[in-house]
Amino acid sequence: MTTSDLDQAGAILGRHFYANDIDPLAPAGRWEARFDVTPAESVVIGDLRFGRDVRIAFGDLGAYHVDVPLSGELLWRQGDGGLRTTGRGSAAVFQPEGATVLERWNADCRLLAVKIDRVALEDQLSRMLDAPVPRPLRFGPGFDVGSGPGSTWARLIRLLATDAGQQAGLIRHPLLGRSLRESVLTGLLLAADHPYRDRLDDRRPVLAAPRAVRRAVEAMRDDPARPFTLSDLADIGGVGERSLQYGFRRYVGVTPMAYLRKVRLRLVHEELRASGASGATVTEIAYRNGFVHLGRFAAAYRAEYGVPPSHTLRG
Description:
Layout: E1 2-3, H1 6-16, E2 21-24, E3 33-37, E4 43-49, E5 54-59, E6 64-71, E7 73-78, E8 84-87, E9 90-94, E10 100-105, E11 110-116, H2 118-129, E12 142-144, H3 148-161, H4 176-191, H5 197-201, H6 210-222, H7 230-237, H8 241-251, H9 256-274, H10 282-288, H11 294-305, H12 309-314
């Protein structure tokens, strides 16, 4: 979406992000704002540029928010904090509470804006820690996106931002979109500064009890086509994600997602053997049993059964 009208720009930001009050900081000239935004879910990602110097007041955001400048600089403050400057190679982190003001969004500043549902992020942290956490989570005001985990997270955001204008993009896919959004939450918790960061870096989880593993296994067997994520299975088992991972490795010998893939492959194999005369295609059967990436499915099937799925279908 492009516009050179301040009122329209404010309406677009308000529809996808937060109510706002925009003031130009330079005499009006030729300018054009552009906003490409992903669908509204627990994570909203925008590739935004204003094209002129502006000041924007938001008030309380009500959500966690991260801005990652790709060019230019952003001057901002939140609550009682002082004025901060964020440029390329760093990210600005905003809390759900506290009056928020972008004191100067420079004309040459293009940024990735990431709005994250408060409950979704806090619940994800609880699952990762295997424990409840006080709310809200207090993040540091920024983190490095030029190297380390912050760099990986920023590349993921940039990749997903390219889906903003694509109706067929993967972030909109009903099976894969949720998993991608969950990766954004997990990645931020592993990249940004907050009081639980050291505990997340501790690689010694509590081992999941066999009961938790059995519950997850039963759920996968009962509904193998369901687009399970690791957090779904951890919730079903009543344990944290890392505990479930370790429990599966000890008691089942593979990770939860690897086990789910084996369950699906077995169902596809059985259906392919029985569908030679029905007219069903490999693609139809694979999709029906929860496989989204056909190339990966075909490779996994060949590795498991020694032949391509089309060979089994032909009998």
